[in-house]
Each structure stands twice: as structure tokens, then as C-alpha cells.
């Protein structure tokens, strides 16, 4: 494994506060750090173990609750529990939850496992909404991470300090999770993913392997939750919700489940979509959904896989086919713009009553009551799409003829 | 000679269909037994029963003086029994090296270990590489299992079965679909790899059978028609009628 | 006693609706090996489509239009999307149907908005099918339809009033008829036998000249249509809102896991059991201590049952043992 890019990444992360001078950017990076741990832990199940869990937020959420309760309990008891270790309390909470929930989830594999994780997630979420003091009802549980005693002058009041804490945990977790994949157990997990039946006949009980995967995964998920609890200083039942679990599935997959860094890319996409895209358009979830569906159909290795394939092509490939590839990308872009325009206008139909009949689209204003705008968007989408399909056909023919 | 694998009055029924009627078989340690018989006689069912895929409808299966019928496959495998499959069952997303390393890891007892990296386990790497060479797959070290040719996949299948250092080995038609040269190679491989171990092998290739087996068990219509040395079985009239017909004895394949 | 009867009937009607939904899911699962995560989304879409059709062209037409629309959508999805994914394996299949459910949720919210819709059954189904009134003077009396309003409002006249909503009776009727038809098709017709055969011997069937892919499209379409029908009924009986897919979806997945993946009998018994359990829990509403009442526990009951079954019998009540 080439070390140079990683050194650069770590250096970049360490010096980011100096280079960026923006609290907003730091918060973004902090959220990405938290999401990275969550997605990496999720991929231990999906990518490494072939286990599609629809309830991963249960572990991040329970970790968050465990962490914030530990924080509050320590404060109340006057114990000087270091804030920097609170995420570990979250990890332990996740681990404890997995001893029971993970056991139930690993009884079966495949489709049944997916359904069971969903059912268990619903169970926990329903219980959380029942109003027990542990979950704090709709407003959740609040906490205060700022310490009074300041070891080495660190009180965790500033975003910079939180950023470094999160980054440290993210790096350590990534290293640990990667190391796990290189162990004999990690290799067994991959084998169970590929052929659980064969493993049974080699002397391995797939349930034991899967159970341990849940334990490891939940521990790191709990750390992620604990960090989130510290960052936002509040945990609500939403943290256990199915939207959160779905989000983990969607974005980890989009990032790429077949490589180790795929989930990291997915985490970046997740935060950018949640923070950036959501403020640009009300249709952002639709776009994410569409990207996901097309990803499953045409790009099962995710964005990382696409980039890796692209980078693996020899330069000669690009010299030969550069023009057609460029045209492909342009036509795809045009088609997507047309589709996006249609989607934005369609969504505006719903919002017309409150927000008027124009929707901003880049530098344009689209008028939903002007048929010309609709026709134009349609035409652009169709034109782009037609060109894309023709060019794709031509490229496939070319590649076929070459070999 | 101690009995290593024993079937006592084993019966297997699927719904109303009887596959195995009453099987009594006793295999001693170090014996190499070929299980022959027409298609549908119940050979793979017998394998499934012994390896734990399902429990017999009646009867007992004993492995190394322990009763194993009804036990889970992994429990039986841990007692030292390994089996190969007629329909190749490999780890499609892993490379040849990784496939073989799996069974080597398990054979050496590293199964659940999560504290060291595999690259540090020199013994494992050495044993896996030896296994790769033994199965003539060293040139395909990094090829994904799903990308291998049929013969290479069968070699990998065999390698996975042999890699775990089991001392009771069940092979289900290991040379099916092989060319002459490939069959010869497989025969030699099986011979060396099962030296000193107990082998039960389903085979249709009579050349392989006569070249390898100490004893032949003939399974016809769910019952063991004969269980004897190759010469005795060859001469057995009932067996000739039921299965072998009046074939001319092939020259046993040998190196 | 009357309380029990009416609660039982309510529970049965809900249970039958659950079975109507999970039957389609189970048939698709056992035939094609695909667990359609979007099945509950089809249910929701059926309700919304039914709503739109009903406000323009009447409820009766909605009952026919919604299943048809969903059947066409299902067929299209199977033909152009699912079939392509089938070769990749079970996890991608689950993911694509999950993605579809996500998309349908967004589309529904985009087109019809995020609030609950006033999807009401037609006039003649809005009252009660029959009622019972217990009064000090006349004891227990049974009525067709609703009792006279005056009778129930005056506490001195009536001790308790019970009524069974006509819409619920209608639900039971439609569910029973549909399921009966489904049973007859599967067990008594040639098509049904072919479908049953394609479950275990698709290659054999194809070499006999049957078009198995088209069969799958047909089955998927039928299952989706069933979900659409259940949606129209469920949407007008209970509620039509974006959350309905998630709520009922989780329950039918529990039904399928507890009943045993691919078992229609299992789905039947568990649907009824859950329907009764949840309805009775809400009706009895006994405080259980810890500040929790039985009614509050009702949403959790299906999952608690699932946990119990997983511990005692992981393959489900009627399921086959597997990995």
C-alpha cells in the first residue's frame, strides 16, 4: 500500500484549521469525520460480510445516548471523566446493544438478516418514542461537553478542539477497522460473505462470524454516535430512526462497498448532500434516490470503483477514445440538467401556493406556468439523453472492434 | 485397523421417496474407498448425510467413535472431516491464494483470531503457497476464483478440501469433466495428498477408481451391493449385472 | 362480551388486510426469490392513486384503476430493472427494491404533498355495518347499520354502544374474496400449477416451452396489483399519508420473517395473529406500570413477537431450516 497519499491526507487534516480559517468548514469536516466512522463500521457488515443491515443507526443512536448519559452522569456525580473518552463510552454502549441485537440479527443470513435488522431497528425506535426518561421523548437528552478542569488547556468549547478530537478518533477507527480486515477473522468474514455454506463444511459456524462482525461494527458505530453527541450536545430519538439507517445504506453504497475507502467517499457524499444539496433544492432526496438506483444498476462498485476503473485505464485508452468520452460526459451532463430542471419545476408545483411560480435554477428562473419552460427542459433532457445513448453505443462498438 | 467412519443401518427418505434403504458401511483408518454406482443411487446423499448437510431418517453415523448423525456440518468438520462438492463451491470474490488460505487458516487453528494480520503468519503463507503449487495454481495466484477455467476451479475446490489438514476426506466426483491429462494429474494429486489419510471418493471414472482405491463400495438402488477389494468387486456377478456390465477391465491408471 | 366480539372483528379485518399485502409479497418471494422491499410502497401508491381517481371518477373506479396502475408499474419495473439486477445476487436485488421504495416515497410526497389526505370511503360505506346497544331497559339489542343517535348519546338510556364500521366489513369481504381467488388460481388452474412449478424447476419449465421470464413478470405484476388493491382499501379505511408505507412495511416484513420466508400458510396465521394482537392491545388499554399502557405497547408488539420467534425458532413458524 502506497503510503505517500495517506501521509498527505493526514497532514492535510492536521493543518486544516490553519489552512481553512472557517468555522463552517471545520464543522463540515467534523461531520464528515463522524460520518466516516459510521460508514466504515457499516461496511464491515455490508462490504466485508455481505450483511445488509437496515438498522445500523440503532447502534450509532444507542452509542450517542450512552455517551451523553455517561457525560451527564459523570458531571452530576462530580467525577472528572475526561470528555475525550466519552466516545469510548458510546462505543461500549453500541457493543452492549450488539451483544443482544447482534445475536438476534445473526441467526439468519441474507434476506432474512435484512428483515430482522429492520424489525429490530423499528423495535428500538418504537420503544424510544414511548417516552422513557432514558430517551428523553421528542426533545431528547441534552449535555454539555465543556469541561471545567482544562487538562492541557483543552475545554472542548471551541470547534477546533472538537475537530481535532473527531479527526483523531476517525483516523484511529479507520486504522483499526482496516487492520481488522487483514486478520484471520477478517478473511473468514469475507469467505462467509462469498460462500457461507462452504464455510460451514470447513468447520466454521457462520453465525459466530456474523455475530462478531456485529459486535465490532457496533462498537465503532457507537464511537461515531458518541462523537455526534458531543458535537451537537443533544441526542434525540431521530438518531435511532430508519431514515438515518437508510442514509447509511444509500451513501455507503454510493461511495463503494467493495473497497476500503469507498465508505469514506460515501461519508463525504452523505454530509455534502445533507448540508449542501438539501439547501439548494427540495428535491435533494429524490436525486439521491435516483443516483442510488442507477448506481445499483450500472455502477455496483460505487463512485470509488468508477474512479478506480477510470484510473486503471492506460493513457493510450484516453488518447484513442478521449473525444468520444468527452462527448459522452457532456451529453450526460446536458441530459441531467434537463431532467433536473423538470424535477425542480415539478416540485415547485407543490410549493406554488406558498412560494410562487418561479424556481431558481442556477442563474435561470424557471416559470412553471410557462409551457415553453417545460418544453425546453423536456427537449434538453431528451436531446442529451439521445446523444448519450448513441455515443455509448458507438463507444461499445469501438471497444468491441478493437479487441 | 480401527474403524474411522461407520454407517449403521442408515436410511434416508425425502417425503415418500426412499433414497437410501439400509446402508451399513465400515471404513478403517487409512483406507481409500471408492464409492461407485449408477446415477440416482444415493452417493451424494450419503455424502450429505456423513458431512452433516442433513440428518438421516434412521440409523447412525459414527466418526472416530463419536456419533455424528444430526450434528451440524461445522461440528463434524471440526472433528477432522473435509468434503468437496460436485458442483464447485469456492469463494468467488476471492483470489486463488485467498481461497486456499481460508482452509489453511482453519486447519492451523487460526479461525477466529482477530489480533494479528495474516501477513505476519509465515506458517500460513508458506503452507498456502505449497498448496498452490501442489494444485498447479501458482500462476493464478491473484486470479479471482470466478474467473478461473472449469478445470482450475475443480483444482481449487480440491485444494480447499485438502488445505485444512483433515484426516477423513470425502471427494465428490473430483475428476468429473476432466480431460485425460487433467485426470492423471488429479489422480496423482489425490494420491499424494491423501497419503496416510482416510478417503471416501465418489467416482465414475473406472481408471481412477482402480488406480487409487484400496476398496470399492458399490451403491445400487440405495443399498450397498458390495464392499470389497477392487479385484473382488470386479469379479462379483451381482455387481456386473447391476452396474459394470460386461466391460473389459481397463488397465489401472498409474504413474 | 360484545366488546370482545367487536374487537375481534376489528382485529380480523386488519389481519386480513395484512394478509392481503403479505400474500403478494410471499408469492413473489417464493417464486422469484426476491423480497420486494417496495411492496409496502406499492401499497401506499395504490392508496394515493386510488384517492386521485376517487375524487375525479368515484370510489368504484378507484378500486379497479389502482390495482391496474400498480400492476403495470410492477410489470415494467420487473421487466426493465429487476431482471437486470437478478443476475447480480440477492443483496443487489434487495438494494434496488429498497431504492425503489425510497424513490416512490419522494415522488408521492412531491406530487401529493407531505400531509395526510382525506381519503374517505363512499357514502354508503361510511356508517356502521351493524351495531349493538346495551341498555338498562332492553338489555342487549343488535341493529343493522348505526343505532339512532339519540339512543347512544343519552347515558340513562344506553349503558354501552358498539358498532362495526361498514368499511371494515368491506375490507374483510374484499380481502376474503381476493384471497379466495388467489388460492383457486394457484391450486386449481393450470396457470397456478405452472407458477408453482417455476418456483422449484424453472429450467425444466423453460425447456417445456413455457416463458419463465414472462411468468415472473406476470407474477410480479399480480403481486403489485394486490398491493395496490390493499392500498385503496387500507388508505380509505385507515389513513393515507407518506408514513403509511414505512408503518405497514415493517409489519409485513415481520409477518414474513415470523411466518417463514415463502410460506403462505405462515403469512396467513401470523397476519391474523398480529392483527388481533394489535387491535386487542389498543382496545384493552390496561396500564402496565412504568408509566406505560398496553395501548402504547401496541406498535412494539409485532417486533417483540419477531424477537421471540428468532430466539426459539429462527426459521419462522412454517419456514424451512436454512443458513
Q: Care to describe what's here?
A:
The complex is a heterotrimer of chains A (403), B (255) and C (323). Chain A has 403 residues and is an all-alpha fold. Chain A has two domains: 4-297, ABC transporter involved in vitamin B12 uptake, BtuC (Orthogonal Bundle); 313-402, no CATH class. Chain A has helices spanning 4-20, 23-45, 57-77, 86-105, 110-128, 159-181, 184-194, 196-201, 206-232, 242-255, 262-280, 284-298, 302-312, 315-355, 371-402; strands at residues 141-142, 234-235, 358-361, 364-367. In chain A, the strands form two sheets. In chain A, strands 1-2 form a two-stranded antiparallel sheet. Chain A has a two-stranded antiparallel sheet with strand order 3-4. In chain A, a hairpin with a 2-residue loop joins strand 3 and strand 4 (364-367). The two termini of chain A are 32 Å apart. The mean pLDDT of chain A is 89. Helices cover 35% and strands 24% of the residues of chain B. The longest helix of chain B has 14 residues, at 150-163. Chain C has one domain (2-121, 167-312): ABC transporter involved in vitamin B12 uptake, BtuC, CATH 1.10.3470. Chain C has a three-stranded antiparallel β-sheet with strand order 2-1-3. In chain C, helix 3 (59-86) crosses helix 9 (212-237) and helix 10 packs across helix 11. Classes of the chains: A mainly alpha (403), B alpha/beta (255), C mainly alpha (323). Chains in contact: A-B, A-C. Chains A and C meet through helix 5, helix 8, helix 10, helix 12 and helix 14 of A and helix 3, helix 4, helix 10 and helix 13 of C.
